[in-house]
């Protein structure tokens, strides 16, 4: 072998290395299929049987006598190839954590979606049961078990419907349908609270057009947040809206109804669905931060309306706004997902010995005890004090954050005030954020520390309001940390 041959022989590996480097480090993504976002949606009928209790927490409610419109668990599953998340919106007043945890466990076993990546919420319609373990008749226990299975079924069906998809975000506004229901009143307008205590300066749901009205005690959030999901060919697949109004009402006694949340879903589906939607397009309205809001303008006279009429009008206005915004939404299929949860231990405002003694006296007054003036409100809160006395000193609640691209969705198991929701939107590291309340359990109202000082119905200790007075500050801080965590992934 001569020198020239040796030289050529030495250069061959170098040339080969150059070829290999081009192959190894060139952007092969252009030749390989990229990870395709997938989505699936489904509804699961969760209507209670007639005869089951259609009540809440303090208000016990009576047996369901008629079904005006069916109740549903509306489910969305998203999959980016690495992470799966599920969001479920149920036409229920509230759901205890034992029930949501059981449904998540079944869903995880069937689909592989981690339980901590599943958000299950209640809309807080007052035309449906509060499934919190308060009613223990056989039919109510049966319904609780039925509900667990049906929620899990809905998630499983949505998972089976996974298909290539795109996601987009939009934001509308409906300022004419949401008002703060807590009011500062003029001097002399506030009566003692149910425990006989004076000094509160807030009244919840005061008389309309009263001359004693001063000003609302907090802000409202008129934003309608919109998470839109389309099939890869542009057909609508699912839509989640979020709006912070308590509920609308206007039911006939004994009737079951999903309230405006259900009407909204039907309205949007009629506006967006096409004949080619198979599986069917699913729309849903989740409840935002509405613990201190409702649909009543206390500075205007009440307009007479027939049963079911008001909720239909509100739903139509919101559906029209969503439809308007929907036309402007740009959808993408290259979004990533992440989810995180945390457990937060919070104190319980248990009654002291004085409150327990008062409650026992209210519940069992002596015939000659003229000092005890009994009215239904006293009896209700006396009973609630005795129930709170059985609570542990602390409770653990689950908080959650889900990121869908640059969209943040948070879940809080309370009736959250608008002020808290607005703060989370402002401080979130994600461009677009909204909170779904009554998610993954039920832990009552969440007044701010300031609202606790002012008083009012939402602060009165009961199973509807029992967390420590600093709970809002701690929850808001923990949720922001979760948003930071999912934003960084």
Backbone shape: globular
Mean pLDDT: 91
Alpha-beta content class:
alpha/beta
What is the strand tally? 23
Provide the helix percentage.
Answer: 25-40%
Largest sheet strand order: 6-4-3-1-8-13-14-16
Percent of sequence in beta strands:
25-35%
> How many domains make up the coordinates?
2
For the biggest sheet, the summary is: 8 strands, mixed
Count of DSSP H/I helices: 10
Low-confidence stretches: 1-33
Ends apart, CA distance between termini: 59 Å
Indicate the radius of gyration in whole angstroms. Answer: 27 Å
What does this structure look like?
The chain is of the alpha/beta class. The protein folds into 2 domains: 38-179 and 215-344 and 393-488, no CATH class; 351-388, no CATH class. 31% of the residues lie in helices and 25% in strands. The chain contains 10 helices and 23 strands. The protein has helices spanning 3-25, 97-111, 138-160, 259-272, 309-326, 353-363, 376-388, 418-427, 449-454, 471-488, and strands at 38-45, 66-67, 72-79, 84-90, 94-95, 118-122, 130-131, 163-173, 179-180, 182-185, 202-204, 213-216, 223-231, 236-243, 255-256, 282-287, 293-294, 337-347, 394-404, 407-412, 415-416, 432-437, 445-446. The strands form 7 sheets. It has an 8-stranded mixed β-sheet. Strand 3 (72-79) and strand 4 form a beta hairpin. Helix 6 (353-363) crosses helix 7. The longest helix has 23 residues, at 3-25. 47% of the residues are buried. Residues 1-33 have low confidence and may be disordered.
